[in-house]
Specification:
Layout (H helix, E strand, L loop, with lengths): L3 E2 L4 E2 L2 E2 H34 L1 E4 L5 E4 L7 H13 L3 H9 L14 E3 L5 E3 L4 E2 H4 L4 H5 L1 H14 L14
Antiparallel strand pairs: 1-2, 2-3, 4-5, 6-7, 7-8
Helix pairs in contact: 2-3, 2-6
């Protein structure tokens, strides 16, 4: 059997025009896959550099995410990340209008109670009730926030152990 029959312009049972169409289609698929791979690579690079913002005219612009600069912003962002959906209630305990445990989110805040015990750090964690003897432990604001989360979670997701959290 011949591979190509010049009389009816067939190549192994298919017409030459059909084969030409198949080759063009394969070339198109190859080009699309190359362009697609390039676009995916560019997106991966952009994702590594920052966050995408899509403008109304669909031009993709890469912007770097906001990094909190001040200690207040860092503390605020960390409380939001640790407490998640409960962070609004946490901020009411800390910065409420009528009662505030630590309005300025001061990591070095210390309040001495009438019995001589102290409330330390961002969440004013009590040395008496939590049995903490090393104040430096509670002065680290991330440790303080993490410990407050554990107390909150172990209290049934309730702030009743904080003076300003009893009504929340």
């Amino acid at each position: 059997m011949k591979l190509y029959n010049p009389k009816n312009q067939q190549f192994k049972g298919l017409k030459l025009k059909t084969w030409a169409s198949v080759i063009i289609l394969l070339e198109f698929i190859l080009i699309v896959s190359i362009v697609g791979s390039y676009a995916k690579a560019r997106i991966r690079v952009a994702e590594a550099e920052g966050v995408f913002n899509t403008l109304p005219h669909d031009k993709i612009v890469v912007t770097k995410p906001h990094t909190p600069y001040s200690q207040y912003e860092q503390v605020h962002a960390y409380i939001e990340s640790v407490f998640g959906s409960y962070s609004g209630r946490a901020f009411l305990v800390l910065q409420g209008k009528n009662c505030a445990e630590n309005r300025y989110l001061n990591p070095a805040a210390i309040h001495t109670d009438n019995d001589g015990s102290q409330d330390i750090g961002i969440f004013q964690i009590s040395t008496k009730w939590q049995g903490v003897t090393n104040k430096a432990f509670l002065m680290d604001w991330k440790t303080n926030v993490d410990m407050a989360w554990v107390i909150f979670r172990n209290s049934g997701y309730n702030f009743h152990l904080w003076t300003c959290g009893r009504g929340i």
